[in-house]
Amino acid sequence: MVEKNTPALEFWQRLNRNRLSTVGLLMLGLIFVLCLITPWLPLPDPDATDLANRLKTPLTSNHLLGTDELGRDLLSRLLWGTRVSLVVGFVATLAAALVGSLIGLVSGYFQGWIDSGLMRGVDTLMAFPYMLLALAIVAAFGPGLLNALFAIAIVNVPFFARTVRGATISLVQREFVLAARLGGASHFGVLWRELLPNILPVIVVTISTTAGWMILETAGLSFLGLGAQPPTADLGSMLGEGRKLLFTAPHVSTLPGLVILILVISLNLLGDGVRDVLDPRLRGGALRSPQPRTEVLSAELGSAQVRSTEKLVIRNLTTELFQQGQAKPLVRNVDFELRPGECLGLVGESGCGKSVTALSLAALAASPPLRIASGTVELDGEDILRLPLRLLQDIRGKRVSYIFQDPLTTLNPVLTIGEQLIQVIRRHQSLSSRASYTEALHLLSRVRIPSPETRMKAYPHQLSGGMRQRVCIAIALANRPEVLIADEPTTALDVTIQAEILSLLNDLRKTTLKDSQTGKKTGLSVLFITHDLGVVSTICEKVAVMYAGQIVEFGETKSILESPQHPYTQALLACTPRLGAKHKVLGGIPGTPPPPGSYPSGCGFLDRCKVASVKCQDPVHLMQLSSNRQVRCVLKQGANA
Amino acid sequence: MLKKQIRVMLLLSFLLLSFGLTIQAATPKDVLVVAQIAEPKSMDPATVTAVNDFRILMNVYDGLVRYRSGTLEVEPGLAESWTISDDGKVYTFSLRQGIKFHDGSPFNAEAVKFNFDRMLVKDHPYAETGPFPLSFFFSAIKETTVVDEYTVRFRMDDPYAPLLSNLAYPTGLIISPEAVKKHGKDVGRNPAGTGPYQFREWKSNQHVILDRNGSYWDGQAGLKSVVFRPITDANTRVAEMLSGGIDMMVEVPPDNVATFSSNTSYALHEQAGPHLWFLILNLKEGPLQDKRVRQALNYAINKQALVENVLQNTATVASGPTPAAFSWAYNDALQPYPYDPAKARELVKAAGAEGATLTFYVTEGGSGMLDPVPMGTAIQADLKAIGLNVKIETYEWNTFLGKVNPGLEGKADMAEMAWMTNDPDTLPFLALRTSAWPDQGGFNSGYYSNPQVDELLEQARVSTSQTVRAALYKEMQRIVHDDAPWVFVANWKQNAVTGSNVQNFRLEPSFLLLLHKVSKN
Amino acid sequence: MLRYTIHRLLLTIPVLVGISVVVFLIMALIPGDPATAILGAFATPENATKLRAELGLDRPLIEQYFTWAGNLLSGDFGRSYALNRPVLDELLERLGPTLLLAGSAMCVCVLLGLIAGLLAAVKQYTWVDQGLTLFTLIGISAPSFWLGLMAVSLFTVQLGWLPASGMYTPYGDESLGDLLVHLLMPAVTLGLVASSVIARLTRTSMLEQLRQDYVRTARAKGERETAVVIRHAFRNALVGLIPVLGLQAGFVLGGAVYIETVFQWPGIGRMLVNAISTRDILLVQGGVMMVATIYVFFNLLADLIQHALDPRIQHSHG
Fold first, then answer.
1. Most CB within 10 Å of its CB: which of A391, B505, C49, C66?
2. Predicted pLDDT at B90
3. Low-confidence ranges of chain C (pLDDT < 70)
């Protein structure tokens, strides 16, 4: 839903979040105020000539900024000139916005021949070198501010028309517009009441980002002597008149140039701010791009334990969201390990921290805003979180690889499947391009993609969702990894495809085991993240249930499914369809989980738990029930104690 | 990695830059680079009107006669001598012998006839190589006859005193008939004359290059080549001069004159000439119909301040319609209207024109217009001081001419204008006579009409005695000064700057640029 | 692709026809006529009328348009009144310099813009980013003609490093080096402003791309960061930037008018300004047609490159 009527207050608050645009606003405000009070300032007449006192340098008595070639006071002319330039620039912008938006709206709304007609017209205008068009228009109508304004407005109409047309087209097929049309609203009504309010932000953004440009163009015309007529000052004509004195009295042209620069800079700063606030893509605040690796806070070294049989050991992992000086933990003190050849399921509702856990393992959690506050991830006893980036990169994709949820967005849209597959092969293995091609083909057939040769040349969007996920699996397996982290790999797929992918993963895991040629029991260890306990039962040997950033229950799949100990696991199981329980009514767990980052210090499930007690408000520890069974619940604590 | 690439790139661009600085070519020592104010239109002397074009042409072509150096008096050129019949209607020229055009064809009486017939005879086979806007300089000539190979005769119906002076004007330069026949309309880009330099190359907006004519009849030129560069922007011309990119620039902006005159690396040249900067006043309608208001304008405008400050003494105050440079015809008894705002206000009041609004056409530039916008603005301020509101409209030069030449009626009350002429007859004859009103093909855009002035001008034109003509012109000046159909503002002192290594250069009162004797060391 | 190319080529025809009509009408509307311009200060109404008849300017507009357009199609651009030479000769002589200037400015613009935008995005919120942001902000906020003047004042008059104007040293050797020295200031001034626009867009676009899932995938694959930035994020950002580059070509061609004037570059832009002021109708019409055609084809090229780079766009829509 596009928000309507954004409260003005919120707008200002958001705008002021961008400090630069606040600066722009202040500068512009200052200029505005100065221009408004100019007539009452104790300034000499801007047009009063005094030939005896011409070309005085700045800071002469009576003339703070000096005088021009006719002895007129420069400060006074600059202020009066800024007034003129501002008015002309803004009126031209508004005129262009009005006409351009109208053309864009009509064109985008009606489409068809009206659209092509109008757009060819707009193309025609755009194909003209803009300055020549403006020159020709001014030549046709004679010089003067009004005509310059007119010319600048015309030249900029196409820009608005195109932008608004694009925005309109994207809205025309939306439900609310269709509903209004079906409801019998007139074309005008739809345009006026439905489209315009939603296009308005686009228009405002375009205005705010072009106003500065328009002022520059007006100055350009005046510079060529086609704008304001003497003695009226505007910034461009002052610059134009002063230019021939560049070498003898540089201040006469430098000062108006600087004023234009400051004026346009402040307009652009403000424009950027307005754009950030109103552009839906930028709404989350300033864009902050994730760094190559997650920031790791503590310098704690690996515990250097005796080398265990575990492949991957995660200890005390805490990942937090760090924004505006506040740290909110998303994953809290997570411990688990993964044995060679083992498949561990990490289960929980969305927002419980399981994906963040998965991404933290290879320091891939988006940082900023995420960061790892503590903990270690040891691969064969080596803490990979604190490895230098280059060594970490050598592990990623080779020893530890990932499969992500949405195979459409996780593949690079502009590279072919083959390129993306070959890239990862050649990154970690020194193979010739021919050998890597053969290897890629082999991988594709291993993930059961039919006619792999043709698929190699296909782009992601040309494949079905299932096929794309198979490609992702092929990429993940390309370098025979030791650990595979699958982050909800089937969630975005149809049920039938889900089953296919699951059986593929299962088969691959087993083949990999067989493939291992060393005597030791190495093999592919899988961390399988899902919210679906049904899926877990088909593939995982062990399960860790996560809730509110913590592991609340851990154990063998079979035992967890058969005798869940934690109330949350029980509730979760109760809403999972199972074979043999056909007519059971499935319901969700009542209530909602605590929002990520705002986890209580006590049991996170407290509010939704049927058996909660006062003790649940204190921190709860993970209890060892048996050698392979852990649970985090006060009830079990009592039982054990 | 990324950093390293950037460093390499920075290093590369730095190397490229420093490499570039050392590889800038130098202009050879015996080549003179002259900055022109605009791209020439054509190098066919019969078709051009601008001083800018004349500056090149005078070095490529010769006329039958030419101005003696430092004066506006004529001396022999391609013609060794001439005789004028007693009635002043027949001019016979004997031509220099053995001269060849740059294209190798011979210069003779036939060539002279071809040149004038091309301009004047409507059905001449090469008449379509025109138009010839200044052919009216010679319209008095009714017939050109070849007497023998080196004698040519012009016959007129009435005596026409300015003829010799007009022949010395660039429109009278002689072009090779063979070149015209060969190139037709394109002869303007493939010129062949007899002058001290011959055409080598014309690249649009880059340069026109002339090379020394090794067999020039009047002694070889001092330079191997001359390069004319069109640099339309005055500021850029100054920058080029300051950075040594050019050897000579003409029309130095007034405010830069001091920069060059105070520096010994440059030589500043100045020369007063027959130039007049004035305001045309509309006598047909509005407050300026009243002579008192017109005189008031002359009193109100502080010409001294304009000349000293805006023009930085690159001009002198004008006293009347005839510039002092025509010394024999100039009435030195006339004084410029003094700056007297009080008297001006009185006159305006007496005429009941207080608070009147006047529309004022101002141009942005143009041949001889000096600094038209600041001058117009200063004039506007002066007139405001005596209670007249002036509304300025500025136009680019050609539009401006398109508006002014057809007459100011219904459009404006006053307009800036400047003329550079070669004979005291030209300006008043074309712009002050009753029969020179725009509808009769003249340039009297302000509709001045005084039968006495008309009569004086007609007489002066047909008189063959310079003394008689001088008296007539002086009387004309007195009347026009009093009638004040114009505001007489300034007479320009033409200027040019050269590097101090440029020798034997002087500006001519004719505003023409002669480089024959110039050398560079 | 071929079908799409043909389709787009056909679409340019109405645009070019439109341009020809507009330029013709504007020139017809402009007061002041070539007759006055040719005859100079000595133009009398009588002479002007005669000349106008000779030039065919007294005939009906429609007739004039079709005569002109017909001649244009057969490669006859007519004759310039003011220059007294065929329009085509003049245009061809100036086309090279303009393409050279605009081309180098585009190179400056693309190189500087893309690199600066890329750097700013990758080094987001560091001093590199802030410095570049400030620089590009000034770039889009300063009048290009003013920058040009300041550059001449500094590099030519004060420092004496670079020539003030022109394309070659007069009577010099016309070597490549000489050309480059003369080209540097105008091309950089012209390209700088355009590059600021590109840099800002590149930065935003890169920041957007760097947040995408596929970048995470690339990192999960163990790709080096340079490859992640260049091969993945930048490659995708470029797809969206190509049409902007096309538009910038128009901007550069338009801005060339000022820059050619300030630096006395012998190109079409400066010629057109002169031609408009001398009412040299055929020269203006021919010049604008040529510039517009270059622009239209540049955009076509940008469009085709975008299609080649972005496999997602279907080759059917208009």
1. B505
2. 94
3. 31-34, 36-46, 313-318
Q: Tell me the shortest Cα–Cα distance from C60 to chain A, in angstroms.
A: 19
3-state DSSP helix/strand/coil percent for chain B, to nearest 5? 35, 25, 40
What's the pLDDT at A272?
A: 80
Name every chain A residue with its beta carbon within 8 A of the beta carbon of C224.
390, 393
Domain that holds residue A586: 568-641
- Reported as a pLDDT band with limits 50, 70 and 90, residue A282 is low
Q: Which fold has domain B2-37+203-265+500-520?
A: D-Maltodextrin-Binding Protein; domain 2 (3.40.190)
Cβ neighbors of A432 (< 8 A, separation 6 or more) are none
How is residue A369 annotated by DSSP?
T
CATH class name, domain B275-492: alpha beta
CATH code for the domain in which residue A121 is found: 1.10.3720.10
In this predicted model, what pLDDT tens digit does every residue of B137-163 receive, in sequence order?
898 999 999 999 999 999 999 889 889
Q: Using 50, 70 and 90 to split pLDDT, how confident is the model at B307?
A: very high
Output the CATH code of domain B61-187. Answer: 3.90.76.10
In chain A, the number of structural domains is: 2
| A296 contacts A371 by C-beta, under 8 angstroms | yes
Q: What are phi and psi of B268, to 5 degrees?
A: -100, 130
Last residue of a domain, one of A256, A282, A308: A282
Q: What is the pLDDT of residues A443-460, one digit of tens each?
A: 888 888 888 888 888 888
pTM of the model: 0.80
Question: Would residue A294 count as lying in a domain?
Answer: no
**Domain end (from A233, A260, A282):** A282
| Domain ranges across chain B | 2-37+203-265+500-520, 61-187, 275-492
Chain C residue whose CA is closest to B396: C277
Residue with the bigger pLDDT between A492 and A190: it is A190
Q: Do C165 and B245 touch (CB under 8 A)?
A: yes
Chain B neighbours, 3+ Cβ pairs < 8 A: A, C
Query: In this model, does residue B501 exceed pLDDT 50?
Result: yes
Please state, in angstroms and rounded to a whole number, the distance separating the CA atoms of residues A203 and A279. 11
Q: Do C36 and B401 touch (CB under 8 A)?
A: yes
Task: Determine which helix (DSSP H) or strand (DSSP E) holds B496, and give its type and residue range.
Answer: strand B486-499
Which residue does chain B place closest to C154, by CA atoms?
A: B239
pLDDT reported for residue B5: 62
Is the complex ipTM more than 0.95? no
DSSP label of B173:
B
Assigned domain for A248 exists: yes
Q: What is the mean pLDDT of residues B58-87?
A: 92
Task: Provide DSSP, B359-406.
Answer: EEEEES--TT--SHHHHHHHHHHHHHHTT-EEEEEEE-HHHHHHHHTT
Does A395 reside within a domain? Answer: no
Q: Residue A230 and residue B380: Cβ atoms within 8 Å? A: yes
The span from the CA of C261 to the CA of B314, in Å, is 26
Is residue A109 domain-resident?
yes
Q: Which pLDDT does position C125 carry in this prediction?
A: 75
Which residue in C98, C101, C202, C221 has the most chain A C-beta atoms within 10 A of its own C-beta, making it the best mutation to test that interface?
C221
